[in-house]
Amino acid sequence: MTPRKAGVLAAQLPPGAQTWVAVGSDAAWSVEAHHLAAVFDATQVGNWQRGSGKEGDLPTPMRRPSDLAEEVSKRDRVAARAQAALERQRVAEATPQPRARDARGRFVKEA
Protein backbone atom coordinates (compact mmCIF):
# COMPACT_ATOMS: atom_id res chain seq x y z
CA MET A 1 0.00 0.00 0.00
CA THR A 2 1.39 3.39 -0.94
CA PRO A 3 1.65 6.19 1.63
CA ARG A 4 -0.82 8.24 -0.40
CA LYS A 5 -3.40 5.46 -0.32
CA ALA A 6 -2.89 5.03 3.43
CA GLY A 7 -3.38 8.79 3.93
CA VAL A 8 -6.58 8.78 1.88
CA LEU A 9 -7.95 5.84 3.86
CA ALA A 10 -6.99 7.43 7.19
CA ALA A 11 -8.67 10.70 6.25
CA GLN A 12 -11.95 8.81 5.70
CA LEU A 13 -12.03 7.28 9.18
CA PRO A 14 -15.13 8.14 11.20
CA PRO A 15 -14.97 10.54 14.15
CA GLY A 16 -14.02 8.76 17.36
CA ALA A 17 -11.77 6.19 15.66
CA GLN A 18 -8.81 5.05 17.73
CA THR A 19 -6.44 6.40 15.07
CA TRP A 20 -7.72 9.91 15.71
CA VAL A 21 -7.37 9.35 19.46
CA ALA A 22 -3.74 8.25 19.05
CA VAL A 23 -2.94 11.24 16.84
CA GLY A 24 -4.67 13.68 19.20
CA SER A 25 -6.93 15.17 16.57
CA ASP A 26 -10.25 16.86 17.23
CA ALA A 27 -11.79 14.01 15.26
CA ALA A 28 -11.10 11.82 18.30
CA TRP A 29 -14.43 13.08 19.58
CA SER A 30 -17.72 12.66 17.78
CA VAL A 31 -19.79 15.67 16.78
CA GLU A 32 -22.11 14.99 19.71
CA ALA A 33 -19.21 15.03 22.16
CA HIS A 34 -18.02 18.38 20.81
CA HIS A 35 -21.54 19.78 21.18
CA LEU A 36 -21.80 18.49 24.74
CA ALA A 37 -18.46 20.08 25.59
CA ALA A 38 -19.68 23.40 24.15
CA VAL A 39 -22.87 23.15 26.22
CA PHE A 40 -20.80 22.35 29.30
CA ASP A 41 -18.56 25.39 28.70
CA ALA A 42 -21.53 27.67 28.13
CA THR A 43 -23.21 26.42 31.31
CA GLN A 44 -20.07 27.04 33.33
CA VAL A 45 -19.73 30.59 31.99
CA GLY A 46 -23.43 31.29 32.60
CA ASN A 47 -23.19 30.09 36.20
CA TRP A 48 -20.04 32.16 36.66
CA GLN A 49 -21.79 35.29 35.34
CA ARG A 50 -24.81 34.79 37.59
CA GLY A 51 -22.53 34.11 40.55
CA SER A 52 -19.69 36.36 41.56
CA GLY A 53 -18.40 37.00 38.02
CA LYS A 54 -14.94 37.98 39.23
CA GLU A 55 -12.09 37.91 36.73
CA GLY A 56 -9.96 35.51 38.80
CA ASP A 57 -12.73 32.92 39.06
CA LEU A 58 -13.28 32.63 35.29
CA PRO A 59 -14.02 28.96 34.54
CA THR A 60 -11.64 27.07 32.28
CA PRO A 61 -13.14 25.41 29.20
CA MET A 62 -13.29 21.64 28.91
CA ARG A 63 -10.11 20.26 27.42
CA ARG A 64 -10.40 19.10 23.83
CA PRO A 65 -8.27 16.35 22.24
CA SER A 66 -6.35 18.91 20.19
CA ASP A 67 -5.40 20.74 23.41
CA LEU A 68 -3.74 17.60 24.70
CA ALA A 69 -1.90 17.09 21.41
CA GLU A 70 -0.60 20.67 21.53
CA GLU A 71 0.72 20.11 25.06
CA VAL A 72 2.48 16.92 24.01
CA SER A 73 4.00 18.53 20.94
CA LYS A 74 5.10 21.52 23.02
CA ARG A 75 6.76 19.19 25.54
CA ASP A 76 8.46 17.35 22.68
CA ARG A 77 9.71 20.63 21.20
CA VAL A 78 11.06 21.79 24.56
CA ALA A 79 12.78 18.44 25.12
CA ALA A 80 14.30 18.54 21.63
CA ARG A 81 15.58 22.08 22.16
CA ALA A 82 17.11 21.10 25.52
CA GLN A 83 18.76 18.07 23.93
CA ALA A 84 20.18 20.24 21.12
CA ALA A 85 21.54 22.74 23.65
CA LEU A 86 23.23 19.96 25.60
CA GLU A 87 24.75 18.59 22.40
CA ARG A 88 26.08 22.05 21.45
CA GLN A 89 27.58 22.36 24.92
CA ARG A 90 29.28 18.95 24.63
CA VAL A 91 30.71 19.88 21.23
CA ALA A 92 31.97 23.22 22.57
CA GLU A 93 33.67 21.51 25.51
CA ALA A 94 35.29 18.93 23.24
CA THR A 95 36.62 21.54 20.80
CA PRO A 96 40.19 22.55 21.66
CA GLN A 97 40.58 26.17 22.70
CA PRO A 98 42.71 28.40 20.45
CA ARG A 99 46.24 29.06 21.64
CA ALA A 100 46.97 32.36 23.36
CA ARG A 101 48.62 35.13 21.33
CA ASP A 102 50.49 38.25 22.35
CA ALA A 103 49.78 41.81 21.19
CA ARG A 104 51.68 41.26 17.93
CA GLY A 105 49.73 38.09 17.11
CA ARG A 106 52.49 35.61 17.94
CA PHE A 107 51.75 32.43 19.86
CA VAL A 108 52.66 32.57 23.56
CA LYS A 109 54.34 29.59 25.19
CA GLU A 110 52.13 27.93 27.73
CA ALA A 111 53.62 27.27 31.14
List keywords for this structure.
4 helices; 111 residues; mainly alpha; 59% helix
Descriptive account of the structure:
By secondary structure, the chain is mainly alpha-helical. It has one domain (3-94). Helix content is 59%, strand content 0%. The chain has 4 helices and no strands. The chain has helices at 3-11, 18-23, 31-50, 65-94. The longest helix has 30 residues, at 65-94. The radius of gyration is 27 Å and the shape is elongated. It starts with a helix and ends in a 17-residue tail after the last helix.
Topology:
Layout: H1 3-11, H2 18-23, H3 31-50, H4 65-94
Largest sheet: none
Shape: elongated
User: What's the number of structural domains?
Assistant: 1
Tell me the helix content.
Answer: 55-70%
